[in-house]
Amino acid sequence: MKPIIGINCDYGESGKQPYSFTYRNYSEAVIAACGIPLLLPVIKDKNDVERFLKRIDGLLLTGGNDVPPQRYGEERHQKTVCVHPDKDISDNILVGAALQIKKPILAICYGVQLVNVVLGGSLIQDIPSEGISFLVHKDLRNEQYTHPVTVGKNSLLHKIIGTECIETNSVHHQAIHELGKGLTATAHTSDGITEAVELGEYPFLLGVQWHPERMTHDPYHRALFSALVEASKQ
User: Is the pLDDT of residue 142 over 70?
Assistant: First the structure.
């Protein structure tokens, strides 16, 4: 039986009415991996979130704008563009509840930053402003390869893709600074930016800083969604 993969929605208020949405390539990547995507709208009631978490088998956390820095005790940088307050509340409830019941999670870009903050970590609010990188991490074309990522040999990511180096796209101006509780950084770019994290003693939690859903023509990136779907069958 195909597992149901919940996908958290983004949220906007432009136009006549507020709306929840995700880009189609997230759900297409799940479908291609033989999962059933289920879009999860913004919900701020913890009991309701816990109820629909029981109805899904795995969770895909999507990209988006930035985690509000108040979540990790910092003032907002001028380059930080926070997610809508309702989405912030909803996503924090969602991730906290999913972690408690050890739901399989694949977290992408904003999603991995969100997981890191929920677990008590912090973020670099703007990589260019920090002057810590010689690589371009925000390439808005982002459909093509941008830079290589080195993968730790004993990591879950390495087990999934079977290689120590992967070419990725890159469309983020923020990155993980201090790791959240229990997280291990398992992939980096040559400038030291964390590109993947995993959570020890957790059935399946993989977070990547790039956007594999935009690169599913590549078997390495496609494999991440297959791994989530397989973990969600357990």
Answer: no
